[in-house]
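Quick one: C-alpha cells for this chain, please?
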Amino acid sequence: MSVLVGSVVTLGMFWVVPTGLALLEGPRPPGWDLLRRSWPLFAVPGGLALWLPRSGLSTALAAVYALATLALALQAPARLFLTRSLRPGEVAVLTALVAPSVGGLALVAERAAFPLFGFDLDILALTVPHFHFAGFAAALVAGLLCRASDGPTARFAALSVPAGTLLVLLGYFVDDWAEFAGAVVLTAGMTAVAFLTLRERRETATDRLTRGLLAVSALVLFATMLLALSWALGEATGLPHLDLTWTAATHGLGNALGFTVCALLAHRRLRSRRPTPPAPPTPAQHPPRTAHPRTELPT
C-alpha cells in the first residue's frame, strides 16, 4: 500500500471515524458508548496492518480492525429499531455507520494479497479510503446538514450521497458506465453538500475560524468531485484523464484533508458553541408549615 494511501487511511481510522461518531446525536443502541470509546484501540492494529508488508501478521491485524467496523455496522439496524425512521438525514447516518465495514473487508483482502471478487490489489487498496471518506465522512456530514436544515436540497444531499456511494460500489461489478452513473449521482449529492455548507457558513458560523473551515471544505469539494467525475468519464469513454495514481493524489487527498478534516472540525466547533438548553425548572420550595399554638377554649 502506497505511503499516500496509507497516510490517508491512517487519518481515517484514528481521527475521522471517532470524531464523526462523537458528532452523532439520537438514540444510543446497546454497546454504542463502549464501541466509540474503544475505537482507538481497534485502530492501532488497523494502522499497523497498513504499514507492514503483506503477510499473515498484517492480515490478522487488519481482521481485528475489520471486526470493529463490523460491530459499527451492526449499530445501524439497532439504531433503526430505536428510531423507526427512514427520513433522509437518518438514511445518511445509517449509511455512514455501515460504510467502514466495506473498507475493512477490502483491507483484509488487500493485506492477504487476495483478489476479492476479482479486483486487483490497487483497487482494493483504494476502496479502503473511499469507504472511510466518501462512504463514512461524506454521508455523515450530509446527515448533519440535513438535520440542521431539512429543506429539499438537504434531503437531496442526504439521499444522493448514500445512493451515489452504493452505485459506485455496484459499478465495480458491472462496467465503467455503471460506475460513471454512480459518480454522477455522488457528484450531484456532494455538490448539494457544498452549497449547504456555504449556507451554513453564512447563517450559523459566527467566528472567523469556523467560517474559514466551512468555506474551505465547500470549495475544495467542488474541485475534487469534478476530478472524480472526469476520471469516471475517461474510464467509460477512453477520453484523456488523470490516471489512478494522480486521481488519488488530487481527488483523494483533497477530499480527505480539504473537505473531511475541515468539515468535521467546523461541525465540532459549531456543536461546542451551541447554547446549552436551560435546566428544567424545579418545583418551588414552599416554607415548612409551622405548628400553630393550640388555643384553649374557656371552660
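The chain has one domain: 3-271.
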